[in-house]
Design a protein that fits this description.
With 169 residues, the protein is an all-alpha fold. The chain is built from six helices and no strands. One of its GO terms (molecular function) is aspartic-type endopeptidase activity.
Amino acid sequence: MSLSVFAAAWFLPFVLPICVYICYTDMKGMRIPNHAVVALFVVYLIVGAIVLPLDAYLWRYLHLVVVLVAGIALNAGGAMGAGDAKFAAAAAPFIHLADLRFLMALFAANLLAAFVSHRLAKRTPLRQLAPDWHSWEAGSRFPMGLALGGTLAIYLGLGLFYGQSTPTP
């Protein structure tokens, strides 16, 4: 991984609670709240300025713009929810560009695991722990925040163990 251990160690304590909250709110109400997306952006705005070299910090805002434009297009085509697009854009600056292929594989695996887990829980007594969640009755729709939030959290967690020991842009 090209993400530095230093950056992962700083980002993870702030990002993990937001990711857990995103997973919860998307399963409960099939919505990713704007205040959670803004909180994620603010974490990058402040912590990123401290832990990343200035040039890398500024260039990673381009990640946000590119993912936001792609997310808007996917949302317009009905392939992605607006909250999912906004969350993905706010999460993009945390990702080292050199880790993109790894991140895509991690997302694919996490998406499959989240989908299967959600669908299994929906059909078992586990559902009774949260009987009022909208995601149980959403038909073919899936709370993508479960996979998106999980992927960002896992990526940063893996960065603690497998990241670069010296900071890289």
